Amino acid sequence: MKLIYNLKKNYIYIYFFLSLQAILQLKPRSDHWWDTIVPDFTPLQFMQNFRVSPESFEYICSHVKHAMGRRNTNYRLCVPIRKRVAIAIWKLATGGEYRTISHLFGVGLSTVFNCVQEFCNTVITVLLPVHIKFPDAEKLLEMATFFNNRWRVPQCVGAIDGSHIPIIGVCMTPECYDSHICGRLTTEQHTYNYRLSSARLVVEMSFRRLKGRWRCLLKRNDCKLELSKRMALTCCVLHNICEEHGDNFTEEHPDRTLNIEPPVQTLPEGADIRAALMMHFNRGNEGFFEYTNAIFL
């Protein structure tokens, strides 16, 4: 019995010695950038780097701190909540490599990954229900009035579109997209396309601003598919927060390919609706193009 106890005691000493040796051999990390440079950022510099205003950043921190917060232990100090949020937001805003972010913030590689994963989970749990929700009757009426007054599209409360986000290839059969050329358009069809395209600008501009802010959506995401989906959803929540808080958006490097999608096949089920809209759009069409051109000038 005594022999077994001594063996266990020796194993503990050896384990402690090897752990201490591994810690002493670690290369020192520098957090100079976060602790010294970032605090001197102007509000504009902060927003250019983190894609959110300082006010929006503090709002986000205040809502996720209870779920993401950590406590110091006798053996190590925890990474402060503001730094953990900044690490995750930097990853989403730049799409940078985990190792690069690790060096920049002076933390371990696994810390960066954990910060991103925990931040996305917390935002989806805490902030998504607040900032992405189905509009109530009053909001729907307001949106319908806006679309009707601005583009003369009746009974419309929004525009739906899709946007391609590059990810690691998954096991699936590649699908081919067919481009259909309809030939020469009639005047009525041209009017229909013009009205509909004008109304759809709202969703195209939304995707442009979304991807302009969160550049991780432009690069191939090398994370697992489930985390890639959570990162994209988190970007949508953060985008709405920025828009609601009035954060300025400056497109530093305009890219006309932000929302280019493969052509999709027109479904026959919507033929009656398209015909009815085309008839509506071509009623009292005099002066419409002058009115619409004046809006976009």
From TrEMBL:
Pfam families: DDE_Tnp_4 (PF13359)
Domain DDE Tnp4: 177-240
One GO molecular-function entry: hydrolase activity
Named cofactor requirement(s): a divalent metal cation
UniProt entry keywords in alphabetical sequence: Hydrolase, Metal-binding, Nuclease, Nucleus
GO cellular component: nucleus
Location(s) in or outside the cell: Nucleus
Family label: Belongs to the HARBI1 family.
Protein name, per record: Zgc:113227
